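Bit of a strange request maybe. I'm writing a small parser for structure token strings and I need a real example to test against, not something I typed by hand. Could someone generate the tokens for this chain?
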Amino acid sequence: MKCPFCQHPDTQVIDSRASDEGASIRRRRRCLACEKRFTTYEKVELAMPAVIKRGGGRAEYDRAKLVKSMQLALRKRPVPSQVVDEAVARIEEKLRSSAQREIKSEKIGELVMRELKRIDKVAYIRFASVYRSFEDVDEFAEVVKEVRPARRRRG
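Reply from user aminoacidic:
Good idea to test on real output. This should exercise your parser:
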């Protein structure tokens, strides 16, 4: 660790302890050149995979964009924001656990559709209609049929 005072490249760890309920480590350090002391914090950083867009371009994963697209599909639907946050957390966990450095935007879209289908059928249909770019009413009808519960026959 480089000293923030004199920029010397060698420092010595004097003390280490858990911080933030074990989520990080606080270290007291001493510069071997100027003898000044300073504190550093070390925590785990789980990187999200880069997103490969439909056109082939790459972009950084953007949580806000994911939340915004789900909220747009859920607009004026009776779904609490906590439910959306939990769904986004499940999607992010799947992305992290995939251990891939890059992921296609189509895969993220499929994960979003799976979550929306579970949360709210109308929002699922809204998202699917934009995401899959329906060309005609028949494609739309197929998605509606997919989420509609089977009717019992009267006998």
